[in-house]
Structure formats: structure tokens, C-alpha cells
Queue: 3 jobs
Job 1
Amino acid sequence: MSGILGTGVQEGLLLKPVKYQWAMDLYDQAVANTWFPNEIQLDQDIADFKKMTDEERHAITFLMSYFNPNELLVNKALAFGVYPYINAAECHLYLAKQMWEEANHCMSFEYVLETFPIDREAAYGSHVEVPSMARKEEFQVKFIKRMTEETLDITTTKGKQDFVRNLVAYNIILEGIWFYSGFMVALSFRQRNLLRNFGSLMDWVIRDESLHLKFGINLILTVLEENPELQTPEFAAEIKQMILDAVEMEEAYNQDLLPSGILGLNATYINQYVKYLADRRLEELGFDPEYKVSNPAKWMATANDTYELVNFFESTNTSYEANAKAVTGKKSE
């Protein structure tokens, strides 16, 4: 089988010549971004945490309850659902670094749980006990199970579709919408001069996640370009519906995250940002925006700029615009 997909153990053992330069570039950037949680002095934020309202502390605890297990869930998606089905050595290098980064993020959130006076047992229990949080996790697990507990034949159209579905579930939805929604809430405290070191930790996590998102989108577009039989209106409609369903799940989750709202932030505000993010992800996959809402958190642009993705793809060997049309089956003008 030619192209980026394949399961041959003895294939993909030579790095040069590099076929997918975008993957090699992302690997180099990821290595340059390497960091460690204990480089940030979180104990300086304890006084802020203690003087915050119960609702504000609930929000931080809720975020840690979600992020911590889901960073590990992403690693399972990568190790069992992506790495084994790709041939390119440069992609394997990047995925290995991404898996290390997910582990580092897990340890970062452990560092938060250890530093702040948070009830660890309650925080750990939330991802199975809070229905809106458990529903999101169940959604992810459903797709990852297709790759791990069921037989996947990557040579078939159905197998390739399942591979893309998994990528959309964990990369576009989990990392590209749900995580970014939480990042915005986490960084909102720094906007009020609270938890500034925690904000710096989140900046580093976001920097990693922006590369994960770029890799995942480029991988999806490459698979679709190399396998034109996947480019059907029916499959495109299914992918879009996955994203719309994810927005609805996130809306319910954010009601539990901020049931009464905190200063300058409530569930309505966050959910507008979620819809804004979803539109950006849809556009990056070649769809028209669904919600057409403005970005309520323009200050987040200092931490990440979702439009940067378009520039990234246009500057690589694989054309973003041409590949994006492959998802929706739109013809080039």
C-alpha cells in the first residue's frame, strides 16, 4: 500500500528522504518546545486560590478533573489508533514526541492537584460521576474502541473511514474544541491578575496542543487526498455531524463547569467561544461555518491564533486549500 497509511512493521524504517515535510517540521518544533512542569513555581498562586470564590475554585477543580484523565485517553488514541496504522517514519517521530507531551501534560495537572488545596478523590471521581463529563468521555471511548478492541483493516474503505473518524474524535473535537474551551476558562483568571503562574503553565500546554492540532488536521487531509474513495458527501456529512454533536455536549458540560458564572465569565460566554472554535475547525476541514458567531474571547489570540493553521498549511508542500476540499468533496474552482 502506498501513501501514509500502512501496517507493515518493516516499512517506514528509513527517515530520509522525508516524504511528509510538514510532519518533520512539526517534530523539530515540538522538540524545541520541550518543557517541564516544575520549571514554574505554582506555589506562588496558592494565596490566589485560597481567596477565590467557591465557584471559581470549582471551575479549576472541574477542569483538572477533565483534563487529567483525558490527556491519558489521548495517549491511548495515539498509541493504539494512529501510530500502528501509519508508515511514515517522520510521522512516527512526531507521534512519539506527542505521546511524551501528553504524559507531561498529565504530570502538569498532577502538579496542580498536588499544589492547590484540591480534593483529589473528588476531582478524580468527577469524570465518571458528572453526567456531562462522562458523556464526553464515552463519546471518545466509542471511537477509540473501534481502533483498539475491534479489528480494523486499514486496506479497506471502512477501515480508512474508521481511522479518519478516530482522528476527528480525538484531534478535532477533543483537542481542537473541548480542550481549547477549557484553556480559555483556565486563562481567564490571569485576565483578572489571578493564578498567573498557572496561566504560564497553561500557555505551555496550549503551545504543544496547537502543534497536535496542526499534525492531526494535516494527517486527516493527507489521508483524504491519498484515498479519494473516502471523499463522499455521505462521509463528509457524518464528519460534520460529529462536530455539531460535540458542540452540544460541550454546552451541557460548561453549564456544570460554571453553573452560576464567575466575574466576567459564564456558560453562555464560553459556549459562544465553543461555537467560534467549531466554525474554525469546520473551515480547516473545508466545510462552511455552521454558527457564524464572533469570538467573544479575542484576548485569547495572545495565547493562540486559530487562523494560524490556514497559514501553516498554505506554507507546506501539501496544499491546505486543495486538501480541505477533499473532506467535503468540493471541487477546486
Note: Residues 304-324 have pLDDT under 50 and may be disordered.
Job 2
Amino acid sequence: MAIMEDSLPAIKSFLPNTQVSAHFRSMLLRFLIAILTRHGRNSCMSAASAIEGKPRHRAQPGRFLKRYRQAIADLLTAITLKMLRDQDWNGRYLLLLDSTLVATAGQTVENTFSTGNSKRRPAKNRCYTKYKYQRKSCHCFVFALLLTPDGLRVPMWLPYYTKPYAKTRKIKHRTQAQLAAQLICDAQVPAGIELIVLGDTAFDAKCVRAACRERGYFWIVPVNTNRVFAAKKHGKRPRVSLRIEQLPASRFQTIRLSIGSGPYAAQRRASCHRTARRRDGTKSTRTYHVHSERSEVHNVGMVMLVFSSSKPIGKKIQREGTKLLMTNAKHLSARQVCELYSLRWQIELFFKELKSTLGMNQYSFKDFEAVESWMGIVLITFCYLEWTRRRKLADRRIDDRQRKCWKHARSYTVREALLLGIRYREHQWHLRRLKTNHGLRTLRKRYTELLSQEYRCLA
């Protein structure tokens, strides 16, 4: 909890100059403080009591989330534009695509679906239990994380609507791949910038490639197991995955990728403990055995296939343990493709920070509009942490040791530094008021306001 409403450092500079009401700004700050200072599960009650000097009823945050969904989305768009305003747009930018699920309980929760297989497959001598378990339902969100050459992370997202919910809202149902294509088209990146889209097998889709072609982006995705090579009209098309067993071991070359150095060390933001030298003086590296070749894939065109394995290559190549990547960036080498695709794991770390540090999955709303507003506020909080880190790196008063810590800092480290700053500012506020009689009266009045209305007469 915080005593002052402006406890967050430089919060007025972070929020763009948009025409919002005082009520909207006050409730937004309550959610930001509640997310950053949370200890346990988030709730509207914690947001209502986030500022001790100005408590609110626990129903007000819930009504705020339902009424200001579009205003929160517009504010998040304005914040992302503000974060990218200082970019020089030189170098190679990365756009990571992935989706995440958030489990939720309750049969009346809107826009939920089950990921489990409810159909029982017949089997001989199978015994079914008589106990009935609760249906597991979840929400799905598609994210795109923009990585700049200096290590800045800018998030974008779209909610996934199920067919019944889309029919109720009278909107068109779109798959996760179509939502990812929409995020690629909506990326706030100027034309002519080298941007590479990284995704997993779920985003090996025609609509994603069409969106990249429209914006002039390159893409790197794992090859789907059902992909086949291009052949004549009546010819047999062999599967691309069968090519792994046909390659001789002599074609593979060994490469070593360092975690703490290289052209993409700023995007990795690995901790100092992982990048430190070992006892024998060597750096922490990862060894891969790679091979690349150009081939024409059916319904895709001429692409470059990259075969990589982290296990030693024997006389015969095994399909298990061999990664097969496909990209239209034919000007890249096999080493560059493997090093670029290793950065796709950054979006998994991004999901971990959202759920573990900011409590993105700790909500319980029946209306999905409130869920969308909650997700927007969590991403605004994440952008505030990224903006604070960049502001600290631009500060010339810090020394090299502090600059190195801020360079590798992630959401948890920045959050702890902000909480320390909040406590320091409030201690200074107390010390200034303890020096004068007027300050003592102000301090007593403020602490009296912390009590409920029926108990203030005792103070």
C-alpha cells in the first residue's frame, strides 16, 4: 500500500498528455500501485485500498474495468507510441509471436473454452470412474513482443474470442494465427525497417506469411510435420521432415553461441550470474550442429531450411532432437538463423514476468470486458517498468556498476527498485512533517483518514 497518490516515481512523465478525467487517472494509479505492491493474490479490494489516504469502495474498481475498456486500450496504444518515439530505427528489430492461456473457474464466465479432450476413446478392459470432475476452462490471449536493438520490450496483444462469444458480440471469429497476422499489420514500425518475425509451429500459417509479405518483414518458424516439398502436378511430394535422415553427418558444422556476448546480448538481458566466466576462465556457451540448404516447399515457395541439433552428430542423423527451421530470409547464414530463433524464448520469459511478478493470471471476473481492461492495465504496468529502466540507463549520474545492473534488469528487479523508492519517498514525507507543529497536525489528520468513518471519533 501507499500513502500518497503520486508515490510512483515520474508517473506524470510516463502517462501521455491525453484528455482523461481525474477519476480515470485516480483509478488507473490505484491499479498500478496494487499490481506493483501486491503480496499474494490480486483483487479489486486491493486496488480499492491501494492508496491508504483515499480508500474507495471495493465495487468501484470492478465498475471502472467494465466502463473504461476502450479508454484503457487507447491509453496503452499511446504509451507504446511514446516508448518508440525515441528510436533511431537502425539495426535489426525482432517481433516475437505466441499465445498464452489463463485458467479460470466458474461455468458462467464469458468467453471460456476447454483445452482438454472430453471424448472418451474406446479401449479394451478400460474402467471409467464414477466421479465427475469440474470442467477446466480458460481464456486465450495472443501476444506480440517487439524487441529493439537496445533491449527495449514493447508488448502488443489481442484477445481470442470463441465462436459463441463472437456470435453474441456480433463480431467475426478469428483464429490465433489470424490474430497474430493482425498484430503484425498493426506493429508501430516505420516502413523500410529490417524486422524479423519469430514464432512457433502454431504460427506456420498462410495468413502470417501474407502479413509479413505485406509489411516487407522476414519470418522464421519451425517446419510443420505435415509440410511437403514442391513437386510436379502429378508427382509424389515427400515430407520435409524426412530430409533429416537423408543428410550425411559431414554436412553439419559446429557453432558456439555465447549468452552474454554477441550482436543480440542486449535483447537477451541475461543476468550477470549466467554471463559470468566459469572457474576455468571460459565463457558460458551453447553448442549446436547446423546445416542449411535452399528448397522449394509446397504452398510456401523457395525458402531456406536450417537443420540444427544440440546433440553430437553420429553416423546417422536422428529425427528426434533435430530442429528444422524454415525462413524466407535467404540472405542469412545458418548461424544467424539459429541465433535469431534462440531469442524466441524471450516471449516465454515475458509471460513468466507477467504472471509471476505482475499477477496477470490472478483475476476472477465474470464479464470478459473487465478481463480485457485488466490485461490492458497489466501491460501498462509492464510498459511503466520498461520505461523506468530506459530512463535510468539514460541518467548520466549513475556509475558503471549501476548501469550494468540496470542493463540486465528485468521486471522483478525494476519492481523491487520502485518499491524501495516508494518507501524512501514516504519516509522523507514523514520526516519533513515531524519538524513543525503544522506538519504534526497534517500527519495526524492523514492517519485519521486511514481509519474507517465509524472509528475516526476515537482518534
Note: The first strand starts at residue 93 and ends at 104.
Job 3
Amino acid sequence: MASITNKASFSGRDLAVAAFKDLESFFFYSSKFEVKHELEVNICSLASYIGSGASSRIRVSKDFCSYSNNSLDKYFFSLFVISHELAHYLNFHNSHRDRNRDDTVAIEARADNMGAQIFATIITFGKRTKANLKNINPDINQFVLAENIGSSLGSLYSETFFPNKHPSYPDPTHRIFSMIAGLLSFFNRLFGHLPENWTMWFLLTLLRSSDLLSRTNPEDALNGSEEILDNIYEIHRNLQDREPLMRYGVKPPYGLFLFSNFQQSEKERKEHRARLEQMVERFDIFQSSVPETS
């Protein structure tokens, strides 16, 4: 494993509650925002998002709640699972009635991408989560974080995405690369601009620690990606017409990391797509072997 295991260990229940409380702390108290949830639920999945409107909530399974997160990569694995459901929750995804399987795939793709942004926001700004991570490994730095994020992505692919391929979800490789793009989107917003050398270092670190090169065909990440992106925009533009997406209650600057604007003009949308394409072009390094570092 990439991470150092210390005495500190947090149950999935502890992890989920910390993440929920951290996300709530990003909103003004006056907004009365809360993450409604149920714990220790008898469900087959690790976690799920159910209900709509005032009844929407996140359910966390008994298995997830009892899981011991005693290393950074295990903690990150579990937090990615919770962040995916938080993405559904923040976007009112159950308020949309899927017209076909393409809608379902698009919504899950959005939850993968935005879930990674939520994940990064929580480990960067969430006081409870950061305290937990420090208790697991007091010597956290950007190198340790990147290695363990990569390791957790590799585990998500091999233990969850690939073995449980389903037509309601994007291709497993697309899911992982969409999450990587979400992480890069967070850092781009955090830094204002992603330095090329830092981006390449981050990507190469993820690749080495996840072993994704030997497990995936990177070209699968692009299959149907344009259609999925178009569908994501259409669905969320309509959702933003009907729902505030809670963004009006969020404290600055967290809204920058937690929400996207789908009410863009055609010109703005083309410019945004061009930026995404430039980001995806960086994935060309997936086509070749990872160079050794000294």
C-alpha cells in the first residue's frame, strides 16, 4: 500500500458523518443546509441517494459504516464513494426523470466528476476530515496525498467499477478518467491556473500509484464522451431552471469548487469545451509508459 498505517482508524460511519458535517460547514448557517442521511442501512450498495425534494437523503450501508479506514488510501476510497452520493444530493438528481439510459449514464458521469471535486474540497477545507487524515498519518504532504489518491482510484477501478459494470453507468475507464478530470478542475480553480509541470507530476503520480496503465485502455475514456457531455449540459441546465442547486447559500469561496454554471451561452459553452479538450489532451501520456523518476 502507498500509505503509512498508524494506530488511528475511523469507521465508515465516522468518515461519512465527518464529510457531511464538513460540507454543511461550507454553507451559511442562515441557509439551514443539511445533508439528510440514514446510517447502518441494509442495502446491497455501499451508499445510495434516494428520494426527491425535501425527502431526498443519502443512505449509508451497514457494511460501509463498519469498514475500518486505518490508512489514507482506504480513507480516500471510502470518501470518494460518499462524495459521489453528495454530488447527486447537491444537484437534485432525483428531481430529474430520466427519459432513457443515456440520461442515467450522463447523471452518473456528472456525479463521478463533481464527486471528485467535492472530495478535493473536503480534504482541502473540511476541518473534521483533515483532522481525521492527520490522525491517520501526521506526516501528510502533497506527495503523500497524491500517491494515496492514486492508490484509492486504482482500488475503485479494480474492486468496484470494473467488477460491477452496468449499462446505467459510463465505461469504468471513463469513470476513473472523469474523476481525474474533476480533481484537475478543482486544482485549476484553486490555483487559478494549473502549471504544466505540476499537472504532469500529479498525473504521473496518480498513474504510478494506481497502476491504471496496466488495467485500462485509455481510449475507452473518450468513447461517447461528447454525447455524455452534451447530455450533462442539457439535464443540468433544466435542473438549474427549476432548482437553486443550493448554491445561493454557500459561503465564498466554496461555491467556486462545488458548483458549475450550466446557464452558459453557446459561445461560453464552446470555450468551456475547448478548455476541457485541452485538459483531456494531457491524457496522451496514458498512451506511453510512465518514465522513471530519480
Note: Residues 284-294 have pLDDT under 50 and may be disordered.
